[in-house]
């Protein structure tokens, strides 16, 4: 089991523990691997069109509760009402929506090799970082720090537009709000942007403010405009080859999700992690362990030539 403690996402880890997601129409695939030490590894592959992280966690909590407690399991039933996210008639996209709504990412062929690495930020370091960001949320603080470090490490031209994109949960942004147990993909991709020189040099609190500004823009009108945008324009969401351009950064957050609450009857999970390799320009955030004071893990895939400088910058302010 200790051999898996610090393993990073890789093709080998995926091959060993995660079932194939082919054909692409498969919504859920599960693989159970018995380890020599007596432990169990549960590997899953989920179709993101069908569920987001919140729904996936609800599924695993419900599944594990039924396995653990049988008919006496206390479970909350999911809401499958897709009409709640139906496009308006006629569909209409507000002109301001596209200033923050990010309908599609652009990929490019890598100019050199990429490298992946896992960084651990302790609870104390996280507290210090959030203090620098004006007591912002963990997501805003860490995203601001990672974005700034990336802009510096990449040595982007000062006038180049740098963007950081992420998915916003829309359940509480709509009017009326979606049911808390809405089961599906209730995410809207949004972005914050600025001149690379400004992102690299301004106070971290200001960078966090840009991200907070993008999040605050996610209201009912933006969500409805995003839904209508997909109704009006056909978007090809098939996986593209390549990596994100150096001016782009994509953040994926599993922070605060009850990933360690899935107790099938033999205790809470010892470690939860992504197995598949990240694409260049992507950074994943997740809790380091089940304890509230366990800190977080930052899984980053960047250009190999910039990874050493990124690591130095990441810990310099912590």
Automatic annotation (TrEMBL):
<comment type="similarity">
    <text>Belongs to the plant acyltransferase family.</text>
</comment>
<dbReference type="Pfam" id="PF02458">
    <property type="entry name" value="Transferase"/>
</dbReference>
<dbReference type="InterPro" id="IPR023213">
    <property type="entry name" value="CAT-like_dom_sf"/>
</dbReference>
<dbReference type="InterPro" id="IPR050317">
    <property type="entry name" value="Plant_Fungal_Acyltransferase"/>
</dbReference>
<keyword id="KW-0808">Transferase</keyword>
<protein>
    <submittedName>
        <fullName>Uncharacterized protein</fullName>
    </submittedName>
</protein>
<keyword id="KW-0012">Acyltransferase</keyword>
<dbReference type="GO" id="GO:0016747">
    <property type="term" value="F:acyltransferase activity, transferring groups other than amino-acyl groups"/>
</dbReference>
């Amino acid at each position: 089991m200790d051999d898996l403690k610090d393993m990073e996402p890789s093709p080998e880890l995926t091959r060993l523990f995660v079932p194939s997601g082919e054909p692409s129409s498969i919504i859920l695939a599960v693989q159970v691997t018995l380890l020599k030490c007596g432990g169990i590894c549960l590997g899953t592959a989920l179709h993101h069109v069908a569920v987001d992280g919140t729904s996936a966690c609800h599924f695993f909590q419900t599944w594990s509760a039924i396995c653990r407690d049988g008919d006496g399991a206390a479970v909350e039933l999911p809401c499958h009402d897709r009409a709640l996210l139906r496009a308006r008639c006629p569909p209409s996209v507000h002109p301001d929506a596209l200033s923050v709504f990010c309908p599609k990412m652009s990929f490019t062929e890598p100019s050199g090799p990429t490298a992946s690495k896992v960084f651990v930020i302790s609870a104390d370091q996280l507290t210090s970082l959030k203090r620098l960001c004006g007591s912002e949320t963990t997501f805003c603080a860490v995203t601001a720090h990672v974005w700034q470090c990336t802009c510096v490490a990449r040595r982007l031209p000062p006038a180049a537009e740098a963007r950081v994109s992420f998915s916003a949960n829309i359940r509480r942004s709509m009017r009326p709000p979606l049911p808390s147990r809405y089961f599906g993909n209730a995410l809207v991709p949004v972005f914050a942007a600025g001149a690379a020189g400004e992102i690299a040099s301004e106070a971290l609190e200001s960078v966090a403010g840009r991200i907070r500004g993008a999040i605050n823009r996610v209201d009912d009108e933006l969500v409805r405009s995003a839904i209508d945008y997909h109704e009006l324009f056909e978007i090809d969401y098939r996986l593209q080859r390549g990596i994100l351009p150096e001016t782009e950064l994509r953040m994926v957050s599993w922070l605060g999700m009850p990933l360690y609450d899935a107790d099938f009857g033999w205790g809470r999970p010892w470690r939860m992690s992504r197995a598949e390799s990240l694409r260049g320009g992507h950074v994943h955030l997740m809790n380091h362990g089940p304890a509230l004071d366990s800190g977080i893990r930052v899984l980053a895939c960047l250009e190999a030539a910039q990874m050493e400088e990124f690591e130095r910058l990441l810990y310099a302010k912590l």
